[in-house]
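Need tokens for this chain, all 247 residues.
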Amino acid sequence: MHDAKEVDGRAAEAQDHLLLRERLVTLGQLTATVSHELRNPLSVIHNAVYFLRRRLAGAGGLDAKAGEYLDIIESELAASNRIIDDLLTASRVQPPEYQAVDLERLLQKVLSDIALPARISWRYRPAQTPFTLYTDPQLLGQVLRNLLVNAVQAISGEGEILLRARVSGGGIDLQLSDSGEGVCEDDGARLFEPLFTTKPRGNGLGLWIARDMVRRLGGELSLVAGELRGACFRVQLPNRVAHDDSQ
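Here are the structure tokens for all 247 residues:
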């Protein structure tokens, strides 16, 4: 029999989760409206930056200082759009659409979207056991994208990111390690809370969204000890090994 305190703790956790979901529904309604209103001026600013680049380049060349400030504006525009995307993703709950997924091809697409800085080397260590991954490529792609962006932000200078895949207990186990500063124990306990961040400019939604998506796929996302000195995130997904498909 379960201990009464354990049962009460689970009930309280379930209640907190329900309240959080209710808040997110309200947040989603507000986010959809606010995001639409913000996209328009951001688009106007983006077009203005493009116009200024063309005009200044045609008027004798774009000096270094002007180019630097235009780069800053474009960088801030991209950051603002990512925040809007994260808010929309956090407030949108859709059932997974399962299909056979080529993990390496999905990784290539994610990496092309992110464009890792030249200062960071990337390594992928595929599983030794053949497997067929049945999952939602959109959800898993977003999970990997969020984890990679988090890893890039954790590495201040030159560094390394490693993704290891292996078949484990009838499922697929992905571990993404970085060579950043790592996560202290106190922060690790709160790392997946919505709006909690250790970064000066983070919005605190990326890891929470990633864990929510992994759970919607029937798996789990956790912080574990990795092969590199920094943080390591483990994605455990249910799966069928290729040689079991015919059974």
